[in-house]
Every structure is written in structure tokens, then in C-alpha cells.
Write a structure and sequence with these properties.
Blueprint (H helix, E strand, L loop, with lengths): L9 E6 L3 H13 L3 E7 L3 H10 L4 E3 L2 H6 L5 E4 L6 H10 L4 E4 L6 H14 L3 E4 L6 H12 L5 E9 L19 H17 L4 E8 L5 E9 L5 E7 L8 E5 L2 E5 L8 E6 L5 E4 L8 H12 L10 H18 L9
Parallel strand pairs: 1-2, 1-4, 2-3, 4-5, 5-6, 7-10
Antiparallel strand pairs: 7-11, 8-9, 9-10, 11-12, 12-13, 13-14
Helix pairs in contact: 4-5, 5-9, 7-9
Protein name: Putative dehydrogenase
Family: Belongs to the Gfo/Idh/MocA family.
Pfam families: GFO_IDH_MocA, GFO_IDH_MocA_C3
């Protein structure tokens, strides 16, 4: 059985060198002093070399196998498209490397279950990179809710949308790359509702599909045992406010846009003046999840207690139920 080891600074390997990896590495270098981008890998060696030069990486590779086989790498961040998360996570875990894998964790619950089983079999750390979970604004929101200041949550609304140029071959619209608004951005409204309200007892979803068969817009209504409800929405067809409002029996919390990376929230208690709280967000906002991974690694933990693997599995169950209702099937699932 493999056991994970770490060094100081912790040496990160970056698997896939696209835009999200650049933002992640920007924050790692600027805001996490006990971390370095040690290695980077891309199927295009020139892309890996350019990425490595930008972040002063010690090693660059033109394939992912060489990255996972690199003995000096302590942990790997997977930044490939959703459709490849399952394959790349198993590749890393099999090689004995702890993993932080971008959301959505995989395509379906079967894949996520296999990833979790492999991590546990190898005694290795694994976490879905839902960066929002570790933002100071979310921590403050949880504190306010748990303190009872807004009473019991009655309803939650959250949206995330932007106008994307339609291109059937682009990642956002290509079914082979697990395109669609639900997996790319709808996961954020779904995440915040699950974090605050738990698992729904009932969920209803409607969508408008793009010509490629992935969802352009998805609207979700959720009902909870507590009596609370939630209205969630994602779209590639319009720029939305991308805010979240949590309505309670005594008041409400408004997470300013874009809520998943917000720098501020407003607390409105009935009969009182609104209170605005400015919240920290260093850089792009990825340093907080990096610090969480490193905290767990240094403590020899194999999963985060703030974002446990069971949470990610249940979130994927919700995503799959929504896809079932709206009729989105990915090619990898067709036998």
C-alpha cells in the first residue's frame, strides 16, 4: 500500500496546462508560500515547457505518465476537461500520488465511486476542487446561518450564467468533452444549496439543449425535508447576476456576484439596517483550496473534513439525476 509523503515546500505537479491551471498556478505561486509548481505536463510538450517557464517549474513533460512517475512530485492537480477526470485521477492514484481533481469530479456516480475506492485502497488523499467551499465568504455565510441570525432557511436562490459563443467543437458544447452548462457552472448553485440545505428529497429539472445535445440552460427546483426549497439556474445563453440569496425566517443573506468567488455579502435581519461584510479573496481565489489540501497532507489525512468524498459522491448523484430528467447523455456512457 502506498503512503503519501510531503516535503517543505510541497511540490505540486500540474496535469494539463490550460486556463484553469494557469489561474491555479498564479495563486499557488503568489499566495501559498510553502508550495511550488515543481512539474507540469501536457500532451503538447511545447505547452508544458511554456507553462513551466512561466511558473519556474523544475520539470516539464509531454505526457501524463511521466508526470505521475516523477518521484519528487508530492501531489497532483488535475486540470483536464471533465471527461478525462476519471481516467487521470486513476492514473495518478495508481502511481501513488495524492490528487486534487477539478470539478465536475467525473461524468457519473460509477466513475466517482471507483475513484474513491482507489484512493482508499491506496491510502491516498483525494479531493474534488470545489474552490468555493474554502472561500472566506462561504465560511462567514456558514457561521451566520449556524448562529441562527436569519432563523431557519426557507428558500435559496442561486444562478450562474454567461454568454458563450456557440461552437460545436468547443469544450462548453462538445458532448465528448462533457460540455453543457450544468457540469461547467450549474454545479456551483447546486453546491451551495447542498452545502446549506443538504440533500433534497425531491428535485425537478428542465433544460434547453444546444444542437449538440448538451444543456444550454438548466433550471432546477429542489425540495427538502426541512420544508425549505431552492431555485437554481445555469446558462450559456445570457449573462446573469450570478448571485445567491438565502432567505430565513428572521432575515436573509445576499452573496454578491459572482457568488462562488464573491468579495462581499449583505446580511439583512428583519427590522434592522442591512450589514455589508467585505470578505477576503486573494488573487483569483484558488489559494484557499490549495492550503486545505496541504493541511490535509501534512496531517496525513486522506480526505478533507470540510469537503469529504461522500459530499462529492452525493453531488454527482444530483448531477446525474438532473441529466436524466433533462435528457443529456454523454458518449462515454453509451455502450
Amino acid at each position: 500500500m502506498n503512503t503519501q509523503t510531503t516535503h517543505n515546500p510541497i511540490r505540486w505537479g500540474i496535469l494539463a496546462c490550460g486556463n484553469i491551471a494557469e489561474k491555479f498556478a498564479d495563486d499557488l505561486v503568489a499566495h501559498v508560500p510553502d508550495a511550488v509548481v515543481y512539474a507540469a505536463a501536457s500532451r503538447d510538450i511545447n505547452k508544458a515547457k511554456a507553462f513551466g517557464e512561466r511558473y519556474n517549474a523544475t520539470k516539464t513533460f509531454g505526457n501524463y505518465q511521466e508526470l505521475v512517475d516523477c518521484p519528487e512530485v508530492d501531489v497532483i492537480y488535475i486540470a483536464s476537461p471533465h471527461a478525462q477526470h476519471y481516467e487521470h485521477t486513476l492514473l495518478c492514484l495508481e502511481a501513488g500520488k495524492p490528487v486534487l481533481c477539478e470539478k465536475a469530479f467525473a461524468i457519473n456516480t460509477g466513475m466517482v465511486s471507483e475513484m474513491i475506492l482507489k484512493a482508499r485502497d491506496k491510502n491516498l488523499f483525494l479531493m474534488e476542487a470545489i474552490w468555493t467551499r474554502f472561500h472566506p465568504a462561504i465560511a462567514q455565510t456558514l457561521d451566520i446561518v449556524q448562529s441562527g441570525q436569519i432563523g431557519d432557511i426557507i428558500h435559496l436562490t442561486a444562478d450562474f450564467g454567461f454568454l458563450a459563443t456557440y461552437d460545436e467543437n468547443a469544450r462548453l458544447f462538445n458532448p465528448s468533452l462533457t460540455g453543457g452548462s450544468l457540469y461547467d457552472i450549474g454545479i456551483y448553485p447546486l453546491f451551495i444549496s447542498k452545502l446549506l440545505l443538504g440533500n433534497p428529497k425531491e428535485i425537478k429539472a428542465l433544460a434547453t439543449l444546444a444542437p449538440t445535445g448538451v444543456d444550454m440552460n438548466t433550471s432546477m427546483t429542489l425540495n427538502y425535508e426541512s420544508g425549505a426549497t431552492a431555485s437554481l439556474f445555469s446558462t450559456f445563453a445570457a449573462q446573469t447576476d450570478s448571485t445567491c440569496t438565502i432567505y430565513g425566517t428572521k432575515g436573509k443573506i445576499f452573496l454578491h456576484g459572482r457568488f462562488h468567488e464573491t468579495k462581499g455579502l449583505t446580511l439583512q435581519i428583519e427590522g434592522q439596517e442591512p450589514q455589508f461584510f467585505e470578505t477576503e479573496r486573494l488573487g483569483h481565489g484558488y489559494s484557499y483550496e490549495i492550503e486545505e489540501v496541504q493541511r490535509c497532507l501534512k496531517a496525513s489525512m486522506t480526505e478533507s473534513d470540510k469537503l469529504p468524498l461522500q459530499f462529492s459522491l452525493e453531488l454527482m448523484e444530483l448531477l446525474c439525476e438532473i441529466r436524466s430528467q433533462i435528457g443529456v447523455v454523454y458518449p462515454q456512457e453509451i455502450s
